Each structure stands twice: as C-alpha cells, then as structure tokens.
Amino acid sequence: MEKKYPIQQVMDEQGNIINSSYEDQISEQLAINFYKHLIKIRIFDRKAISLQRQGRIGTYAPYEGQEASQVGSALALQPNDWMFPSYRDHGATMTFGHSLRNILLFWNGRNEGCVPPPNKKIFPPGIPIATQLPHAVGAAYAEKRRGTTNASIVYFGDGATSEGDFHEGLNIASVWNAPVVFFNQNNSYAISVPIEKQMKTKTIAQKALAYDIHSVRIDGNDIFAVYFYTKQALERARNNEGPTLIEAVTWRYGAHTTADDPTKYRNQAESELKRERDPITRIERYLQNKGWYSDSTKIEFEKAAAEEVDQAIAEMEAFPKANPEDMFRYVFEKPTWGIEDQKNELLSVLRGES
Amino acid sequence: MQTSVKTKTLTMIQAITNGLDTMLEQDANVVLMGEDIGVNGGVFRATDGLQVKHGEERVMDTPLSEAGFVGAAIGMAINGYKPVIEIQFLGFIYPAYEQIMTHASRLRARTMGHFHAPIVIRAPYGAGVRAPEIHSDSTEALFTHMPGIKVICPSNPYDAKGLLIASIEDPDPVLFLEPMRCYRSTKQEVPDEKYVVNIGEGKVCREGEDVTIIAWGAMVPIALAAAKALANEEVSCEVIDLRTLYPIDRDIIAQSVQKTGRTVIVHEAHATTSVGNDVLAIINDTSFLFQKAPVQRVTGFDVPVPYFGFEDDYLPTTNRIVHAVQKVMNY
C-alpha cells in the first residue's frame, strides 16, 4: 500500500525542482513570499517558547519543523475560505491572517485568542483530538449549499486519525461531496506514541480509500509540494469534485508542548538528523540555486519578523487584565439568572462588600 | 371583530411534526438532520411527510454517525444554518456527547460571542413504553450540568410545539427532550399558526394550597393523577410542570412553595446529582423559612434504567407520590 502512495515532492532536499510541471508556476516573488512567511512563523515559535520559559505565557505547543506544511497550505487558500486549526497550527492561522497578538493572548490564557480578525473565517483551535473535522465538513457543506465556491481546510495530526471523529468526518464529507480539504500533518508522534504504535497502516493517505475520496501523500517539508497539492485539492473542492485527504509527512523537532520532554520518548540524534530536511533550509537552497538568495534579504526578513513579533508581545503584555465580568458574559446570548447571580456575587466580593 | 385562532386536535408527536413543518416554512435556514428522518419519517414519525413536502435538502437523512452529524451541524450553524437534529433516543446521544460538551455548549464563551452554535437536538427519552435496553434513559442532568446549553422538556402537545419553535429561534444550543410516554397518550387543541412558549418558564398545571408537586415530562400526568387521588383525602396539591430544565423557573417554584410550605419533587431520572436536587437548592435559597417539612423526592433509582421487566418498579408511580405527600403532610 505504501507504494501506491509515494511521497510526492516538487523540490528535493537540495532545493532542486524535480517535478518540472510546477516549475513555471514558481516565480521569484512567490518563492520569496514563502520564505518570508517561513522565517516569520519560526521566529514566532522560538520566541513563544522563550516567553513560556520566562513565565510570560502559559503552556505552549511548538511546531518547529512543520513550517512548510502550515505556510504552504495556508497560502493556498482564498480569503473567503474557512480554516479549522488544531492547537499546533497557529503558524497556519497567522499566515492566513490571524492576529499575532491574539494568538499570543490565547497562549496566555485569554479568550480573545479565539477571536479572529473581522471577516477571517478562522475557527478557534481544536483542543480535543479530531473533533474539528466534522465542523469543517459542516461549514464547507453550508458553502456548497449556498452555491459559493468557498472551501474549508482542517488541520490535524497523525494521532487524530485513530479517533472516531476523523472517520465520521471523512465519511460524511464523502457522502455530501463537501468542499473540504483534510490536511494531515504526520509528524510521526502523538505526544510520545510513535506512529507504529498508533496504526498498522504505513500511510495515512490510504485511509481515504475506504471513503472513496481523493488523497495524496506529500513531503510536508517541501513548501512547493504543500502549496501546489493543497491548491489542487482546493480547486477540486471548488469544482464540486469532493473532499481530499492530504498527508503531509513532516517532523516536529521539539516537544508536544512546553510541558513535556521529548528526550524521554524520542532519539534526539535522529531528530537532529532531520535538520538536513528542514523546510527553511530547503527553500534557502532553492533560492541559492536560482540566484534569488542574499544574506541581506534573510537578515531583513528576520529583523522585520522579530519586530512584528516583539510588537505583538508588547501588545499582548499591555493588554488589559481579564475583566471577571467577561467570564459570565458570553456563555449564552443573554446570561441566565443563575449566571447573573453568580457574577453579581463575585463582583460584590471583589468590591469588598460584605 | 373577533379573530379566532385555527386549531387542530393533535397528539404530542403530531404537534412536534407541526412545529417542524411551521419552521421549515418560515425560515429557509432551518434544516432537519438525523437518521431515518427522511423517507421513514423518523422512528417515531416526528418528521413524517416533511421530506416529501420540503425536499431532501431541508430534511436530510444522515449517515449513522452521531458525533459526525452533530459536529457537522455545528459547522453548518456557524455558517448560517439552523440545524434541528433528531437523535433517535437520548440513550444514543453519548457518541455525540463530546461534540456537545466540548464545542456546541462552549463555542460562544470560547470566542467571546464571535461564533455560536444555534442548533436544536431533539431526543426522545424516558421509560414507560416497553422499549429495548438503553432506549429509556433519562439523563437530562448530564446536560443541565453543562454551561452553555438549554434543556427543554415539554409534557403536552401545546407546549411541545411552542417550546420547539422557541428552541429553533433561540440563538443558543438547545437539547429538546421528548418524553416518549407522552407522544401519543393525550390529544390537545394546538394552534395551526406559529407561536412560542417561552424558554425558562414553568407552568402551574393545577392550583393547590397544601403541597407543591414539581415534575416534568412524563411525570407531569403521574403527578396530576396523584393530586387528583389526594383531593379525595382533602389534600390540596399544586402541580408545577417545569418545562425548562435549564434555566429553571426559579420564581414559579419560590411562589408556590412559599404558599404551600411543603414540596415533593418527582422525576424519573436517577436520584443522585439530579435536576431535582437543583430544585431543592432553589427552594433552600429562596424559601428556607417557609418550609413546614423537609422536601421529599420521588425519583428513579440509582441503577441503570432497567430492561422493561423492571420498568414498572423503577418508575415513580402515583402511589409513591401519594406516600411522599402524606409524609410531608404528617411531618
């Protein structure tokens, strides 16, 4: 079965285009834009880990190593599409236009973090595993019924494919021919459980076969493969050709979250070897091969990204303290009497009334 | 000039069909979803004829996939639709519990109102119809405990239609419990037109002076029968149908128990951590000094709702209610 789902690449590890059918679609501007986004989300990720270590945000889920999967897929979307991320996909959400300040607020325990900018259809991060897949199907199906060409993309990891909601989501999407792209980032580990203990199948892409939906296995560190295959899947969706399951094979260098230690469950030498396949190194090689690379551009991008992230951190840290009333305000459209009573009691205690 | 409201004599299940039909006509965004609700018209025929009338796009047979279609309904709801889902029996809702618990109920709070999930989940529930195993659960407390979802339970045809329409129009997720035992047990005049019974309002079904009996769903007719039996013994019972289990009508409870000073709470759900215990807390908070006797509870037992060989022993009966009323009277 593995042979039926070979890992598709557009660019090899050395940054050479090996699938010439896409070559003329890669302009300097496109490649540079990819590079810029990759640098930005890596800087954000590293900075966020450091903020967590300093106690300036709470537990954080890093994605270093998975940048090409997130940037490439997000840039393939149209502005009116829907995005349903998991908790590790803020690289994708910020590429799609989520506010960096709000993403940081999320990791700092604030509900504002789940609020996307106006007109950006980004669902809050899925915390339970795979439950966001049916949501993406429903939102996509609603677009189809209204006769738009908007689609949904939903992100999830390899472990999520063991959950019932993965299978129920794929099945319903198949029956309804919903315009949805199931974007799997296979990083080989569900926290500490390696993929061999997660599933007997060698690929995730083959799971689509049972639902008679299109699937493809791609190199998730090859941003061109991610971008072009996601774009194709979205085009299929818009043309009423149904859902697609994309398995992007990638690697997360770090921990599942800042609360666990990957040295306990993963050979670090093996993890370091993966740096040779790093998504950012790869596009740098490509840009060098094309003569489109310069150290000064890289420094300029890194500086701009760091400034943008620092600005977001400053905004996050200057953000007003959580107003306890907000905890009660949004449970229902109008608070019930019980919630109203509880709010008033808390406020009166906070005001020091007896 | 007097205008007369056109009515029909309907059973509860017919009133529900009528309510769904009314809302399919009135609101193009209303979509019915569930297993076997199309050609088959649902296992209890609640959607009988609606697919023929409104089409397959409005009355959708879904795959057998409670988590999947409740999740998909959430996705449709955030994107402009108002899905009304039928779960075949409340006992089959558990696969979808995660979707209800972790998404539908807390979506508005998580996103500070940016997204919300205005779905209605209809679920036949309760014992007393000789149903197979698992079909008779009365686990409303699992849902009233969860912030962000309203829980409704009508006991008669008129309320069923009015509350169903109110639920569909409500911007928050609603669990709409339909006591199977009441589906065809009584008929009532039900207006043809659209009307609502307000969510959160209970109803005094029988006025009385000595004892308040508080019930909902299929226990309301049993409580009324007990009140009738007790009237022969010159005990005057007031019977309250809660109708909404979250948020409960605090005022109607307080008003009645302050008048009578004695209360019996009746429900078929298990006793521990039940909605009845919340009613007790409301009485404690609002009316402690009015009480002439400790509140009595007549409930199902803390055992899984049994297979129907035990059903008559499991369910509260008129007799058990009469005993509880005598206990508070003789305290």
Give me a quick take on this structure:
Chain A is an alpha/beta fold. Helices cover 45% and strands 10% of the residues of chain A.
Note poorly predicted spans of chain A: none
CATH topology of the largest domain in chain B: Rossmann fold
Q: Which protein chains make the most extensive interface, counting residues with beta carbons within 8 Å of the other chain's beta carbons? A: A-B, 42 and 44 residues
Please identify the top-level CATH class of the largest domain in chain A: Alpha Beta
Shape of chain B: globular
Tally of separate helices of chain A: 13
Cα-atom radius of gyration of chain A: 21 Å
Distance between the termini of chain A: 71 Å
Helix and strand run of chain B: EHEHEHEHHEHEHEEEEHEEHEHEHH
CATH architecture of the largest domain in chain A: 3-Layer(aba) Sandwich
Q: What is the CATH C-level name of the largest domain in chain B?
A: Alpha Beta
The largest sheet of chain B has its strands arranged as 3-2-4-5-7-6-12
What percent strand of chain B? Answer: 15-25%
**CATH homologous superfamily grouping of the largest domain in chain A:** Thiamin diphosphate (ThDP)-binding fold, Pyr/PP domains
Tell me, briefly, the overall form of chain A.
globular
Looking at the overall shape, the CATH architecture of the largest domain in chain B is: 3-Layer(aba) Sandwich
Distance between the termini of chain B: 55 Å
Biggest β-sheet of chain A, characterized? Answer: 6 strands, parallel
Tally of strands of chain A = 8
Q: What is this structure's SSE topology?
A:
The complex is a heterodimer of chains A (354) and B (331).
Chain A: H1 28-53, H2 67-75, E1 82-84, H3 90-96, H4 100-107, E2 121-122, H5 132-146, E3 152-157, H6 164-176, E4 180-186, E5 189-190, E6 193-194, H7 195-198, E7 214-219, H8 223-238, E8 244-249, H9 268-273, H10 279-290, H11 295-318, H12 324-329, H13 337-350
Parallel strand pairs in A: 1-2, 1-3, 3-4, 4-8, 7-8
Antiparallel strand pairs in A: 5-6
Chain B: E1 7-10, H1 12-26, E2 30-34, H2 50-54, E3 59-61, H3 66-77, E4 82-86, H4 94-104, H5 107-110, E5 120-125, H6 141-144, E6 150-152, H7 157-169, E7 174-179, E8 188-191, E9 203-206, E10 211-215, H8 219-231, E11 237-241, E12 244-246, H9 250-260, E13 263-267, H10 275-287, E14 296-299, H11 311-314, H12 318-329
Parallel strand pairs in B: 2-3, 2-4, 4-5, 5-7, 6-7, 10-11, 10-13, 13-14
Antiparallel strand pairs in B: 1-8, 6-12, 9-11
